[in-house]
């Protein structure tokens, strides 16, 4: 009799639904994933031998998905790049609210110190790549705007997150108009 193979993505999707339902990464448990995904315990434990491995996979998938959507947007004229990045941050959060809630919960709530070494290394490499892109954008924006790093980060990085936080935290849909509002605010604040 052939073995039934369960999709890892379906298990991670179940974990993300648990976070959305409980409002916290504490709501993600192996038993909960087994129930939510309708899979056997062996299927889950085969892929995620510990809860820490499961939490790591949930975080890494969400962060990598978000970053992959935006990496190509860092190039070009810095003000335009920052405005487009802000707008796309909002649209990504609207398209993937469950994964956006993972990121909103914050890395610390996923207990990264307990992750398997491979998962920590993967997260650190991805974060280093992301940070390099952000540093490059900040450097370009400082050059063309004369603004400080703190001002640039507040406008280009913090503003999009703040715009979506109120909707994600309340479990409400992000309005379609928010992309354009965020893009306009970033552009107007950074245009020299």
From TrEMBL:
Residues 5-66 form the HTH tetR-type domain. GO terms for molecular function: DNA-binding transcription factor activity; transcription cis-regulatory region binding. It comes from the Bacteria. The keyword DNA-binding applies. Keywords: DNA-binding, Transcription, Transcription regulation. InterPro entries: Homeodomain-like_sf, HTH-type_TetR-like_transc_reg, HTH_TetR. Residues 29-48 bind DNA. This is Transcriptional regulator, TetR family. It comes from Lentzea fradiae. The lineage of its organism: Bacteria, Bacillati, Actinomycetota, Actinomycetes, Pseudonocardiales.
């Amino acid at each position: 009799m052939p073995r039934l193979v369960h999709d890892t993505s379906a298990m991670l999707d179940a974990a993300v639904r648990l976070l959305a339902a409980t409002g916290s990464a504490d709501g993600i448990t192996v038993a909960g994933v087994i129930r939510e995904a309708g899979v056997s315990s062996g299927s889950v434990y085969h892929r995620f031998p510990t809860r820490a491995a499961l939490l790591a996979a949930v975080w890494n998938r969400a962060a990598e998905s978000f970053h992959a959507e935006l990496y190509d947007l860092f190039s070009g004229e810095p003000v335009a790049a920052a405005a487009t990045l802000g707008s796309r941050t909002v649209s990504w959060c609207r398209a993937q609210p469950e994964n956006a809630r993972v990121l909103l919960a914050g890395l610390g709530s996923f207990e990264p110190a307990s992750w398997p070494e491979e998962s920590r290394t993967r997260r650190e490499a991805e974060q280093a790549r992301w940070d390099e892109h952000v540093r490059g954008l900040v450097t370009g924006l400082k050059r063309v705007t004369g603004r400080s790093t703190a001002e640039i980060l507040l406008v280009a990085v913090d503003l999009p997150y703040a715009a979506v936080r109120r909707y994600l935290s309340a479990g409400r849909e992000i309005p379609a108009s928010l992309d354009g509002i965020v893009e306009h605010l970033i552009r107007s604040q950074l245009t020299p």
